[in-house]
């Protein structure tokens, strides 16, 4: 069975090839486009208190899904171009984060791992 | 068989639950964190001509993989929180993009679909 | 009397010239660096409810000032490179925004000008 | 004589007051909006080689100016809200950057100050 990441990457490869767009798709340009799409997602929520699902209009909810899809497309294309196995590296990173953020110290806290702990508020 | 997206989302759900972090993980905050991680990926490439794999140092290449993993984690968490099926919405979006960017007009061009075509240069 | 924008742009021009950095400072690269610095500012606030001054630690407050300074530096450098008068174009844009967001319709609302009004909540 | 920063901040304060928008303008929200506008500037350049002035269409050039104005507006509003003197902190930051990036080591190089120097290419 074809995996989700592979299925989408194959579709994106065909999409770019048909349009002769590989020339534009350097890792640098894809990272810029990825950041632009992430910011378009953020724009939907920027003046809202939380952006929780039940506070979004149908148009906002649909737009959020589409911006998230755009983010994923550029991410998959960048991984493809750089020959990075996105699934493997993400599993590895979740393991590294578990070491950086031990439960005992970070439970209920949003501190960054390399900064002094904030006093309880 | 468990799919890649589901496997990672399950791991991320457990990670956040152990640390009691769901309180911080509103869609708005996740979209902000996603944008921050995308920008950290972009930072690696910002002064480089293209960021192609063979121009990166080993440290830059590893860092790029880790930043891409962070982007994916926040994206999957946001999709989970908003109950969006990221795989389905991405397939749908690739289909919509094919309509917005017909091959005949956009082959070899980086114009935006809603802007006048640039003259050939 | 030398104006604030001009004073800073002159210092930045000298700074880049001494290091022979103009070669890296294309408008594209400066826009990428500007976005990266803006995201570093956002990172300080990403898990906080509001980021108001009295909720920040002294280290966070100082870091916020420094990130804002970095944003301004790249913005002034981009304006310089593109020969854009940042003061004049900002005055013009504030005037345009006043037309896009008439007080009568937008008072107390965070709607975007090109989207349907949200019902009062 | 009124300084540029102060002139614009005063206009922005009046603009927000008339629309009762201070409620939305937390430092966090302003930092998000700032990042979104920076990304909109980046979007103009994302597929271009350099974004130099003579390669932009008149529409792109005008749009770049307007996005830069939006960035400056949110930056000035954030500084105002956090009671940060943007001119002073930027002068201070340029001084700090001169110490972080000594001419002798960084001339002609785009390395980051806290990373090992790249070999000459």
From TrEMBL, chains A, B, C, D:
Record field: transmembrane: none
GO BP term, example: nucleoside triphosphate catabolic process
Pfam families, per the entry: MazG-like
InterPro entries assigned to the protein according to its UniProt record, in alphabetical order: dCTP_Pyrophosphatase (IPR052555), DCTPP (IPR025984)
GO molecular function: nucleoside triphosphate diphosphatase activity
Protein's UniProt name: Nucleotide pyrophosphohydrolase
Organism: Undibacterium rugosum
Highest classification ranks of the organism: Bacteria, Pseudomonadati, Pseudomonadota, Betaproteobacteria, Burkholderiales
